[in-house]
Amino acid sequence: MAPMTTFAQRPIQAILFDLDGTLLDTLPDIARALNRALLAEGLAALPLATVLAGVGRGAAVLVDRVTAAQSLDATGRARILAGFFHHYEALHADRDVLVQPFAGVRECLDVLRSRGYRLAVVTNKRRDLALCSLADGGVLDVFELVVGGDTCAQHKPHPAPLLHALRVLGVPVTAALMVGDSSNDVSAAQAAGIPVVVVPYGYNGGEDPRLLPADAHVEGLAQLPGLLAATAARDSA
After folding, report:
1. For residue 89, is it within any domain?
2. What is the rounded CA–CA span in Å between residue 172 and residue 156?
3. What is the pLDDT of residues 205-229, one digit of tens each?
4. Is the residue at 7 inside a domain?
5. The domain spanning residue 127 has which CATH number?
6. What burial class does residue 155 get, using C-beta atoms within 10 Å of its C-beta: 0-12 exposed, 13-18 middle, 19+ buried?
7. Known catalytic residue at 128
8. What residue numbers bound the domain in which 33 lies?
9. 4-34: per-residue pLDDT in tens?
10. Which end of the chain has fewer beta carbons closer than 10 Å to its terminal beta carbon, N or C?
């Protein structure tokens, strides 16, 4: 667990969490929805590893990445994107999802909320689908705010969604922390002037999140409350 170097004299009030790959394992549902859309267009289904490499910057980028080798025009990609959303919505409507929280997530969130932290989600997933994933993953109730990829004009790695979340919460940048799994999260947090903690198991375009230049790395969210407590104790000493 790498030490935080930028938390000194920064009492944290709000913690902003990425969703896919940080809180919830949504990759199986994303892959099923995408593959159903691809098959409807006469294209081959993709293995999880290929889908994983495209996840992180929103559904449109995912479709562009996984169809880059196909001879598709903009209309074809648009049909696949619309199909992806249709099938993803259907999975949730039918309660046929496989989404699960990663180990220690619920326990971590309950502890943080009990300590008075303001908790929010900032994701590149469309907000309505984010709400569905959080609900079906059993963690929606702990969050005060959910900012989706369609909430602001820009999405991560732009800092706008993080800054929007803090404005809504009424929390200054100097009292915030970002928790994520990808370069999108690190870049957005750094651009916003917010320290960032990274977990190693997420969807960083298939690359190792441990190599990201975060302020701290934790092996799982179960370690986060202890890290925050230790940092607070050290700063008050």
Report:
1. yes
2. 19
3. 878 899 999 999 999 999 999 999 8
4. no
5. 3.40.50.1000
6. buried
7. no
8. 27-93
9. 445 555 789 999 999 999 999 999 999 999 9
10. C
